[in-house]
Records
---
Amino acid sequence: MNPTSADAVLGPVMCVVGARPNFMKMAPILRALASHVPPLPALLVHTGQHYDADMSGRLFSDLGLPRPDINLEVGSGSHAAQTAEVMRRFEPTLDAHRPSCVVVVGDVNSTMACTLVAVKKGVPVAHVEAGLRSYDRHMPEEINRVVTDQLADRLYTTERSAEANLQREGIPADRVHFCGNVMIDSLLTNREHARGAADTLRANGADPALLDHPHGYGVVTLHRPSNVDDAATLASLLGVLGEVATELPLVFALHPRTRANIERFGLTQKIDPARMLMLPPQGYLEMLGLMRDATLVLTDSGGLQEETTALGVPCLTLRQNTERPITIEQGTNTLVGSDRQAILQCVAAILNGQGKRGRTPELWDGKTAERIAHDLWQWLYASPAAARRS
Ligand code: UD1
């Protein structure tokens, strides 16, 4: 058993992406599969959960992702409709390509939908970023994580707490591999190419003078349904951000869901454009540059909590919980929920030079995708019977 090309024996590795946070995780994995000796042939499937140029196409080019081999063009819908549509369209794709395994990343609806289809067809599934738990089942992502991890055959974790979570759920330890954080692979690869904040403002028709403040500037992202789908909650958060903006100008990269809700709830007047700049969703290199040079980041994103830890930039997370506790214990993250007092106090501390600087967590070293490719190779070839379900 010494094949020079992996698909001489087994089919290709089918790599699935659906939504924006998947793209930065899959880019280094595809590169590592290609540069593995011998190479592991891969097929890239985009479910089309995110489809806007801002949310999808632009990130593909920023990250050097190849054009998807297959685009399922599923688009938006309720959770049930979107999940069902991904499943319906993914099934014939699996039948047609007969992959050796399916690799899914993160916790979006596409992650869970493709896992369900693959395991029922006897195709093994590897889940990258397994075992994270917020223990908040109001989050759709938490449901996706729990289901995906129960079903996956190989589980790659980013931090040690994930192993304990999986153990608690009865998942056998020999399926679980702590190998680090692929998102940080992308960050380290692209850090040098990040676009300067002033350039990004100019490219968006905004005056970069906004950034010339003695305290610098802050970056904001908000998109969780719990923060943006309820008018009173969103109004209150925008009110607090308005208060922060009197001390520190804010650059807000607006998710389409948030933009639509600000308009729908009539909250546009809550935003003082001289202090709080609203931008459309930004490319990967633009976001990286904005975060790298920021005084602080205010967010409800999972990815930004990790990226700010890797960049050493203080992060205030506008949520009650996080599935990424290492960013609090070792990194730069602090949970502030939507509590006005907590937010203002933490911002004041950071502006006084008391922000968390943190340290880089174990194995967030830029080599995670290589470790995954190597493990996949061993798993699929050293014990093909274990990997093959049918
Ligand atoms: C999804 C993920 C979330 C992730 C987020 C990153 C799930 C359950 N949620 O949430 O974990 O953090 O992506 O952005 O999978 N829309 C557009 N253009 C697009 C995509 C979406 O306008 O390209 C709008 C649509 O109105 C859509 C809404 O955004 O209904 C929400 O999109 P959806 O894919 O359902 O979930 P996200 O909120 O983006």
---
Amino acid sequence: MADAPAPAPRRGNPNGTILPLTGNKTRTPPPPRGLDAVFRPRSIAVIGASTRAHSIGGNLLSNLFRSGFTGKIFPINPHASVLHSVKCYPTVGAVPDEVDCAIVSVPKEHVLEVVADCARKGIRGLVVITAGFKEVGAAGAELERRLTELVRRKGMRMIGPNCMGVINAEPEYSMDATFSPTPASYGPLAFASQSGALGVAILNVAQSLKLGFTQFVSMGNKANVSSNDMLTYWEDDPRTRIIALYLESFGNPRRFVEIARRVTKKKPVLVVKSGRTVAGARAASSHTGALAASEVAIDAVLEACGVSRSDTIEELFDLASALASQPLPQGDRVAILTNAGGPAIMATDAVIQQGLRLAELSAGTRRKLAAFLPPEASLGNPVDMIASASDVNYGRAAKILLADRGVDAVLVINVTPVLYGPRTVWDALMAATSGSKKPVLSVFMANEAFYDEARSMPAHPPIYRFPEPAARVLAEMWKIGRWQKKPGGTFRRFRMRSTAIRRILARRKRRGGGYLDPDDAFNLLEAAGVPVARPAYVRREMDLPRRAREVGYPLVLKASGEKIVHKSDVGGVTAGIRDDAELAAAVLRMKTDLARHGALAQLEGFILQREAAGREIVVGATNDPKIGPLVMFGLGGRYVEIFKDVKFVLPPVTREEVLDALSRLKAGVLLSGVRGERPGDREFLVETVLRICQLTADFPDIAEMDVNPLFIAARGRRGVAVDVRVRVSGRDDVSHAG
Ligand code: ADP
Ligand code: MG
């Protein structure tokens, strides 16, 4: 019979069910609750089990046997009496024992009735493998809604539908409830994958890297259990040291941020978020039926909560396997140890490019190295032991570098020389560095035979083929370490004139939303506590000189008109006007310019504004339908769109987070006073960003706003907003659920 591999011989009881090997008849553990019912069951029913090889139901059953599940297994199939030498039941209701978890793999028409059976049986955990739900359209979505509702009403927890199953590799459970051909070993990684197909690839990569799991879960449509639930489940699990997620969508991004911010302080959370490109996003929506949120928003979300984002599964595993075997660096100073010059230059470039530094080796370290290295060796950093470097010397030198207090991490590079095979170098290196409190990453540029050999070695630290990925991993590890140590920061609330803000927004809202009148926009900003250079509107040209004296020179003249959106684009802004004569000339010139741009007919009047000085910054906000308010700031003025030097933050944010984002802006240096200039008032910018965060979080009717520019004056002098646009959400906007 062409069947799945035979299960290992087990003790059977008279019913044909399997007794747990570690079972203790006198003391039965209490029934597992919550997600434990799925991941830590005492007994599993496989509904839709079969012995047909290469069938999903067949693989599910044989994987449970192959993995050596420590609990009881009950195959359910009305058309069989025995499967894999185990008694088979027609329904879960017919099983004489208690059942904690059901793996459901029946045609989709039967899923609801089967789940209802499970509920009656008192089953608390469900893994629904069956596909044909939300991902196939409206009818499927309706079926999924009914399934989810049933599961929720009965207080069950469900993985899926449309998934590949779950694994708990902890030795107490040893449960592989997937139909994956590749098994998983036990280790420190917890993995949730939104794609089932990718799940198999993930298990394959993990196997080849000897990286083991606590739990692995293919999430499917996430109808009941979400990635957020999994994060929470793993947050305090002592055996899970690294959490990895492959995501196609965020169910509730705001909640994700809340949870991830907390979890990442305790253990690394690595994410591959697919749908980076527009085409990818479209594929994601047809694949799991999820709408991928906009890209910048996602990056902001992940950055805001200390998650390490990888572009590919390969990158994620590069990092995960380093985290599994190496401690986090305590600083950014890297020592490079090599036997060849070229790769050392590559490594140096990669280290610098990743924002790390080359360590300054101490005199003592150099002396110790000089004692046994040949005179041709280079004792600076990189330490080049030249091609004759022996395996023993690799070990010795690495140990000396690790002992240097100015070194936070060691990057070892070995190009296979003539005399020493990579394997002996590797062994010497491992013997010398294992257990080190500082990370050691290794790049071996060897032939395929070595990598093949490495695959058959017992679990070991990662071996990179090139310096670049190793440097990237080190940089990520440093980022993780820094994040974990970073103090939480403080959330500050500002006093605002809320009634005034509410009134302005309500008035626009009653008229169906849209852009606020310029006056209202300035009023709103002022009510939020942001200083503005109040514009004076002048309808008649003849009134200009009188009003100009009220505003005070030097001033700026701007064209005003409802249709004139970007004033400077049509010649509608003149700055630096010092007196009446200059004003008159500016008016003439502006009218000519407007005419040239075909905008003269749109001119309804003029704006006079006090001239501001300093650095031009943009602070804006947008209310993303999925994520809620996102606040952006960066290089402002007319070049916003050209340089795109901006950062997003996600309210609520702390002062420290804003400062951190600011330090990652290229324009950040503009505030620190370049070449003898007085440094800009950074504190004013930070406060303004925090105020806009609070404003948009408290008043979700603000669909979009742009303060551009906000002038940042020299430290100690007041900055001002000189141009503000605010759009109020209306009937056409999708409201977000908060
Ligand atoms: P728009 O964005 O519609 O073109 P702005 O009011 O933002 O119009 O003005 C455009 C540019 O003119 C600003 O980026 C800034 O360089 C300059 N500017 C505008 N108002 C002032 C002001 N009050 N003081 C100094 N410069 C100003
Ligand atoms: Mg502007």
